[in-house]
Amino acid sequence: MAKDTKERILMAALDMFSKKGYEGTNIRELAESLGLVKSGIYKH
Question: What is the CATH number for 18?
């Protein structure tokens, strides 16, 4: 399961970076887009 979550995070981050750039992307938005909390992002 952790591997699937990590892959989902990476894919969502790549999508957000391509749309908003690195500077325009934040952890809160990334976590919300995946239905996670910020600490879940940091864990993976």
Answer: 1.10.10.60
Overall domain count for the chain: 1
Long-range CB pairs of 39-44 (<8 Å, 24+ gap) are 40/5, 41/9, 44/2, 44/5, 44/6, 44/9
What's the pLDDT band for 44 if we cut at 50, 70, 90?
Answer: confident
**φ, ψ at 36 (rounded to 5°):** -115, 170
How confident is the model over 24-36, as pLDDT tens digits?
A: 999 999 999 999 9
Range of the domain at 8: 2-43
